[in-house]
Amino acid sequence: MDINYKEPAPITDRENPFESMMERFELAARILGLEDGAYQYLKNPTKQIITAIPIQMDDGKIKVFEGYRVIHNDVLGPSKGGLRFAPDVNLDEMKALAAWMTWKCAVVNIPFGGAKGGIVCDPDKLSLGELERLTRRFTANLLDVFGPERDIPAPDMNTNEQIMAWIMDTYSMHMKAAARAVVTGKPLILGGSLGRREATGRGVYIVTLAALRKRNMDPSRSSVVVQGFGNVGSVSADMLFKSGMKVLAIGDINGSIFSSRGLNIPDVMEYFNKNKVLTGFPESETISHEDLLEVKCDVLVPAAKEDQITKNNADKIRCKIVVEGANGPTSAKADPILQEKGILVVPDILANAGGVTVSYFEWVQDRMGYFWSIDKVNTRLERMMLEAFDNVFFHAERYKQTLRLGAYLLAIDKVAKTLKLRGIYA
Length: 426
Ligand code: GLU
Description:
Blueprint: H1 17-32, H2 36-43, E1 47-56, E2 62-73, E3 79-86, H3 91-107, E4 113-120, H4 128-141, E5 151-155, H5 161-175, H6 199-214, E6 223-227, H7 231-242, E7 246-252, E8 255-258, H8 265-275, E9 285-287, H9 289-294, E10 299-302, E11 321-323, H10 335-340, E12 344-346, H11 348-351, H12 354-368, H13 374-398, H14 403-422
Helix pairs in contact: 1-3, 1-14, 3-14, 4-5, 6-7, 6-12, 6-13, 12-13, 13-14
Residues 80-82, 154, 156, 184, 327, 352, 355-356, 359 line the site of glutamic acid.
């Protein structure tokens, strides 16, 4: 499963992720002098689908779930973005996440637009059979939306390779052809890519080292705190640990642990796999969710979910660099507070773009019917992440803005220019 789905921290300033996204979009649009037509076009999602998903539960009763797919924009190419299964999924969240996918794909220079979808459900309370029927019926409802050249889903919170396999199978059955490229994050045997599962965490690691270099900091003399121990948090913590960084603290929804001597992440992983919780790990202290974010460290990696660093706790953050492994972990109101403190924020649409970049590689491989070695995947991922990092830095410096604004400026400018070239079909 990707990441943890339950609320990882009680801290929230009730800012809406969509408003946070829009606040930055408007700022960047103003700086770029975006003309009103393009502004209106890029502000509103292209398509918002709300679909009722009836399934037969194991007890024989019918239950109807609500599902969403928001396509924010498809100017750069087919829309791309994950599917999230969680009780708190809602349309506004989908709209924000879909727009972030548009900007993210533009930042890493891949030929995709942005989308996001989800189903309001608690996957922990569904049997495997119910989960399969839910996924297949959702896919059937969206048959005319999904497609290798139209809209390509992928895993996100609480969705995994198995769910992607069911989507691929349902779609292929209807098309009467094996449509591997309709979905990414699939099992290897069905046309998945080597390195896809670790890609987001690997990308976080690549940009963290790049940010340390910019600040003339040596990884082996730097410390890191990671919030989240799902697919993104655990992989980035492990890779940062192996690069010589001291991992002072790590946490997930069920609890956080701290050690001033540093945590041995492979041992933590082994402990976690056995006990399903982090707390109780030998020679560590249990700390609260709030305290985890406020530990004094060099790098803080929020890799859980939206709105973790808000106007309520931003002034208590004591790190030099924030690398956003999650989507939207910092609210727009927290941005100026972190900036005032001189904290370098590597924004989500750059920092966690490794996942969608390797999704792009998977889509390319599926269409070629030829699969790359892990070395090829990782080398290309590193090159694309570093190019994006430099490009974001360049835009931030050129416009004298934060890296976040630099990323938005780069992305919006690119999508707006492409829109101008394509023109409006009438
Ligand atoms: N869910 C991931 C994200 O938020 C990956 C999306 C994809 O690979 O399409 O970036």
